[in-house]
Design a protein that fits this description.
single chain; 7-stranded mixed β-sheet; 8 helices; alpha/beta
């Protein structure tokens, strides 16, 4: 895959950088505009423990622009001129109004950075319309199962995929005994459930589960302290009470980064490895990723946007490149043909993870390796070897998440 072009002015995609100066590229009169929509739902989140976890204003959008630039590099030869149009919404109703606007102006492909309820609202409105949505934010498993929709392609992995990727690595390292500490939000509880499922699938042993209950505002002096074990909760097979279960890893379920980054440095637990939503994480992208062309991608992104690439940027990049690749392979840009191509087996993307990637036909989830990384460097890539499955043994990434025989999605 070619690295992203350095140009970032998507309002004038005919401009390229030459020696650090923007120059106008000659355009063929036959260039056909291909406008991609981008909807951002502004959602209030609790203040994270670290200001470093606050996303920049152009989070995601920057990655989409990088993909637009690559699309235009190839579009000059196929006669397509890509652009990105962004709308921000503060409610599901505003998001729906933005989608209606995009559909009316001929935007067939729309990237959605929104919550699961809003994404479902958009998908149901767009049913039977020539609109394909790309989910880059919502990790809810239900969106790939009971609430799956044929007009939604999921770039972001769901929680089951992320938990499975991490569990495989922990088990492969023989770190099988886990203390699970989770927050009290619905998202934290959902991730904790995914961790429990992954432990059962791959041989992890959750020796204790403890809940951190958030104290908002200035009273959060105890943020980061591991909640104490409940007396008498743990018992051996002979019913002898165990007061301090031994664990190899503290697995954290704290999606808003409220308390997890401080575990276990404020006491309350043994100073073991911390994994989950903080510490050692399963992620689509790492700022320290350097294999398979990732160094060049990270360097070009940093040069263009003056910051490091985040997972949400990579997910938006993959969405725009999916559209560009599908249109390149089907240059007439007939919506039904392009949509079928994206859903089908012939789409092959290689976004810096070493293998060709595509979407699962049964639930619209993007098949992809998952990086296991610290805040500085990747330490492994899942799926790990040694975890076979029956339905698609030739596709190792299908050991992550819900496989086809388990799926209840009725697309």
């Amino acid at each position: 895959m070619n690295a992203a072009a350095q140009a970032t002015d998507t309002s004038h995609p005919s401009k390229e950088r030459e020696g650090g100066v923007s120059v106008q590229m000659p355009q063929s009169p036959e260039m056909v505009p291909l406008d991609i929509g981008y909807i951002i739902e502004e959602v209030e989140h609790p203040r994270p423990a670290s200001r470093l976890d606050v996303e920049p204003e152009n989070a995601g959008v920057a990655g989409a622009k990088m993909g637009i630039d690559e699309n235009n590099a190839g579009g000059r030869f196929t006669g397509h001129l890509y652009s990105l149009d962004t709308e921000t919404a503060s409610s599901p109703e505003e998001a729906l109004a933005a989608l209606e606007k995009f559909q009316a102006s001929g935007h067939n492909y729309v990237i959605v950075d929104a919550s699961a309820p809003t994404l479902l609202k958009l998908a149901d409105w767009a049913k039977d319309k020539n609109v394909l949505l790309f989910n880059i934010r919502a990790t809810d498993v239900s969106l790939r199962q009971a609430d799956c929709r044929a007009n939604v392609m999921h770039i972001v992995p769901d929680r089951y995929m992320l938990a499975d990727a991490l569990a495989q690595y922990l088990v492969a390292m023989d770190w099988k005994n886990w203390l699970l500490v989770h927050g009290s939000t619905p998202a934290d509880l959902a991730y904790a459930e995914a961790v429990k499922r992954a432990a059962g699938r791959f041989g992890g042993n959750i020796v204790d589960v403890r809940e951190y209950k958030d104290v908002s505002g200035g009273r959060r002096d105890d943020v980061g302290v591991i909640p104490p074990a409940i007396p008498g909760k743990q018992a051996n097979a002979d019913k002898t009470v165990v007061s301090s279960p031994k664990y190899d890893v503290i697995v954290v379920a704290d999606e808003n980064q409220v308390f997890g980054p401080l575990l276990p440095y404020r006491g309350g637990g043994a100073p073991q490895i911390v994994a989950g939503t903080t510490g050692l994480t399963a992620t689509t992208w790492s700022r320290g990723h350097e294999k398979w062309g990732a160094t060049q991608a990270n360097n070009n992104f940093e040069k263009a946007f003056h910051r490091l690439m985040l997972p949400i940027d990579h997910q938006a990049y993959v969405a725009t490149r999916t559209i560009g690749e599908a249109v390149t392979r089907n240059p007439d840009n007939d919506f039904a043909t392009v949509s079928a191509f994206i859903h089908g087996p012939d789409l092959q993307l290689a976004p810096f993870k070493g293998i060709k990637q595509q979407f699962r036909p049964w639930d619209g989830q993007f098949r992809q390796p998952i990086l296991i990384a610290t805040d500085k460097v990747p330490v492994s890539v899942s799926p790990q070897r040694g975890f076979p499955h029956a339905s698609h043994p030739e596709i190792e990434v299908d050991t992550l998440g819900i496989d086809e025989p388990e799926s209840i999605c009725k697309m």
